[in-house]
Design goal:
- Two copies of one chain form a homodimer.
- The first copy, chain A, is of the alpha/beta class.
- Chain A is built from 18 helices and 19 strands.
- Chain A has helices at about 45-50, 85-90, 110-120, 125-135, 140-150, 160-170, 200-205, 225-235, 240-250, 265-275, 280-295, 315-330, 355-365, 370-390, 395-405, 410-420, 450-460, 495-505; strands at about 20-25, 30, 35-40, 55-60, 65-70, 80-85, 100-105, 185-190, 210-215, 250-255, 300-305, 335-340, 350, 430-435, 440-445, 470, 480, 485-490, 510-515.
- In chain A, the strands form five sheets. A six-stranded mixed beta barrel of chain A has the order 1-6-3-5-4-7.
- Chain A is globular and about 75 Å long.
- Chain A starts with 18 loop residues before the first strand and ends with a strand.
- Chains A and B meet through strand 2, helix 1, strand 5, helix 3 and helix 5 of A and strand 2, helix 1, strand 5, helix 3 and helix 5 of B.
- Strand 5 (about 65-70) of chain A pairs antiparallel with strand 2 (about 30) of chain B.
């Protein structure tokens, strides 16, 4: 039963009488949701009927935000003052004692489209545009954004809704344009701990002369995103002019997409998806494609790991997502090639930003102990990109990729890219560590990616870059009772204890069967 | 694609090291979501890796809450202090300077059931029990509760999920038991502004000697709930012993169900459903039935208004809800009779707590100008209750109900109930009013309940009890250009201006066609 009270027909900036208060920076960090603090006996609260948790429109000169009200019942504020949280202060460009005007915000019209979707109606192109616009403008509260995420979760978005969402996300972000052609790219839909092929693929492909301006995400529900891992090795928060300089010089880059506002909507959605651990196929496709298109890519290879505990659990659902990526991509003139890969266990040994970065360096430097599985996957994907980008005929990509890696050309290219991005850095190891031991001797018969990721997250990854775990027991390996199956790394004793408590409570995260 | 990282297997109360801080009451009202404030350089934040918006478990002696962290970057707090919001202070029974222990909370295990539902799996009886238990314990953040609401919205809950949810809601609340039999009750699923039959039905039915201990809700998405309207006339926040005394003396009561914790889960869900304006058939059925069963009812008549702008829009969906109510009720031994009523326009003249209370008084007092439609609906429902409760043979209920109302016996009973609840009060009229005029002469051809309700809500109802509107132009009535179609009432000039701005922007909330 819909109850669409929200469409108003009013134009933005209605004539409600503004009320003036003097702003004060309270130094309260509420993360991204802006909060305004007013006294309960303040004349504005009384005359406007504001109460705790009311949504309030706040103006400082030409700057405008919608903030959530917390009511002050103590002497923290004077009656003529409006306290601002840190995010509200920044968004309004606050000035101590300066005047802000507060009023009732208009009802957010586009939320009626979210409600309609919740009740089973498809999202239209117009609806998607309006929703994403309002989210980026800060007009949605956290619970409204959460409603939208839930409405799109699982398989609730069909192909036309997905295209509409992609277009809407593109419309609110910046777009890069390049003189070169083709512009190649690679992407992994995620869900496989340690699958850090991007720095390798970019290095190989750029070393072959293709243009690959790679923008990566931070973690959504995983212990590390490519941007998190790369940040351990070099700065990734580059501006668009900085990215242009890096790509002009080296042919490639590995930067955080969020820093350049290629998909600001996606960045906001991620902030709430992360604590909820919710995914949506349609949103995933829109998120990937909007970023690739915004980055100016023309040809992209997409890695879809499949495994019972990976993000994509079956070949069937991988094929669904693959088909959506290809056909939604085509709607924007983007050539998409998907690669279904093994998603039954982590890739490499490290899980968490710094530990994964060490794996990447080992492969690039052709170290003896470099994880062979990470190397192999990177070569397969680089081969696809080289073939898609016309640098190798079909079937010849793999040999070319391997020769570039073996010769050290990829490592040289990676160092050059890092230098161009601001300088190569050494990963640091965490101070607090704990081994989890094999309960019996035998061979490793099963690995639960999700619970491994959970342990790495509880240990502090990705916020604590050195946190995570080292995975010592790939599928099929033989282990002796009492040897370490994994080592948890943490930056604080509290986080180490927390990850241990969880790991100790779990049977068979790494399943050892007697031979 | 599910990513269920949240099931832990850990028992509640894990062994994470606690950290001691000294509590300070900051006097910040964040409504129901408890907030804890800590300095960014506080040793606990550092050692535990807490950041803004982290969920934190806080203990004060035996009392425990989960609170959201806001990080203080100013001198508001000392490094050893933990500031608490008003709701956190109350829940912990705070004491200035007293010691609180803070730690990472365990992942909320039941949220994996919410996630599974979002991805299309049905909610099990166990799952519903665990979710509702955790919500009532305060273990869910607002965005987690919002995800649950979205997952149940529309028609997403089937009958077995609805029964499971009803049982779960019953399990966390108190239950009343009565010696009398039958215990009758009435309920309206809502959505029709001004449909305030409850005080009338209870008065008539109790005057006939049936036992009707009526607990009502406050508004969810409407400008007034029965409890909001009744509160204008008498206290409704009664304790269970107080309710027992009222019912023992008068055979009936009209109190707020939330005050007696009959369905504490529902009260929490309502707090977030209201700003989102989201409904769910299954949750509606579970909410109604859990409250009726908890109140000890054995026979209940349920009013389902049907109309294109009512909460239930078609006979078809009314029949679906009706069938769910009857069969889920039967699973708990509750006899349910549903009555589909006209939902095409508001009932009576007032919309908003006090204005509706005035309509109720007019009918009870048999005033000449009493709204005939409200009177008629109340008699029809009272007749059904009288017949269901065995006080009148089939077909004879209406005459009995009318005679009780006409004789003044119902008004006497209502006064007696109000006195027993703490004393009858006079409704007050709001100070700020504005007439909306007919744009042309003609007859009233259409009325949009939803936009009328929206106007009343923007005027401040139900939080401002005198706010709302008087509706002067029922369907079919003849109006002259320039006469008032409705009068907006508000308690503050800001709210009046806001309701006017919205009303002025809307065409044909009350549609007048030239004759």
């Amino acid at each position: 039963m819909s109850s669409d009270f929200s469409a108003t027909g009013l134009e933005h900036g209605h004539n409600g009488t503004g009320n003036i208060l003097h702003m004060r920076r309270l130094g309260i960090d509420t993360y991204q949701e802006p909060v305004i603090y007013m006294r309960s006996d303040c004349h504005v609260c009384k005359s406007e009927g504001f109460e705790a948790q009311s949504r309030i429109e706040v103006w400082h000169g030409e700057r405008r935000i919608i903030a959530t009200l917390n009511v002050i019942t103590s002497s923290l504020l004077k009656a003529q003052e409006a306290g601002l949280s840190e995010s509200a202060w920044r968004a309004l460009d606050g000035r101590e004692g300066g005047a802000v005007r507060v009023m009732h915000p208009l009802p957010v019209q586009s939320f009626s489209q979210v409600r309609a979707k919740i009740y089973g109606k498809p999202i239209t192109a117009e609806g998607a545009g309006a929703i994403i616009h309002d989210i980026v403008q800060g007009n949605y509260s956290d619970i409204q954004i959460t409603s939208f995420i839930g409405a799109c979760a699982g398989d609730r978005l069909d192909i036309s809704e997905t295209i509409a969402l992609t277009r809407a996300m593109l419309a609110v972000g910046k777009r890069l344009q390049w003189d070169a052609h083709p512009i190649v790219d690679k992407h992994c839909v995620g869900g496989l701990p340690g699958n850090r092929t991007t720095p390798l693929v970019v290095s190989i492909v750029a070393a072959c002369g293709l243009t690959i301006p790679k923008t990566s995400s931070r973690a959504i529900t995983s212990p590390s995103g490519t941007a998190d891992t790369m940040e351990v090795l070099a700065p990734v928060n580059l501006t668009i002019p900085q990215i242009r300089r890096v790509v002009a010089r080296e042919g490639g880059c590995i930067v955080w997409g969020g820093a350049v506002s290629l998909s600001p909507a996606d960045d906001i959605l991620i902030r709430l998806e992360r604590p909820l651990d919710l995914d949506s196929s349609g949103q995933l496709v829109a998120s990937v494609l909007s970023k690739k298109i915004a980055a100016g890519s023309t040809h992209v290879v997409i890695d879809i790991p499949v495994g019972s505990t990976a993000k994509v659990r079956s070949r069937e659902s991988a094929q669904t997502i693959s088909a959506m990526l290809v056909s939604a991509g085509a709607a924007f003139g983007l050539t998409v090639k998907t690669v279904l890969t093994d998603g039954t266990q982590p890739v490499g040994r490290g899980i968490g930003p710094a530990l994964e970065a060490l794996d990447v360096l080992a492969v690039l430097q052709n170290q003896d102990h470099a994880p062979a599985d990470l190397r192999r996957r990177a070569l397969v994907l680089a081969a696809e990109v080289l073939e898609l980008g016309g640098k190798a005929p079909p079937g010849a990509g793999l040999a070319l990729a391997a020769s570039i890696l073996d010769s050290g050309a990829a490592w040289q290219k990676f160092q050059a890219i890092c230098e161009a991005q601001g300088g190569l850095r050494e990963p640091e190891l965490a101070s607090y560590r704990h081994d989890l031991l094999a309960p019996r001797s035998g061979h490793v018969a099963a690995v639960d990616n999700r619970r491994l990721a959970r342990i790495a997250k509880l240990a502090g990854a990705p916020k604590a870059p050195s946190a995570g775990l080292l995975f010592h027991a790939p599928l099929g390996s033989l282990v002796t009772a009492g040897t370490a199956l994994m080592t948890i790394h943490a930056e604080s004793p509290g986080e180490l204890a927390y990850a241990r408590a969880y790991a100790d409570s779990q049977a068979d995260v790494i399943g050892v069967e007697e031979v």
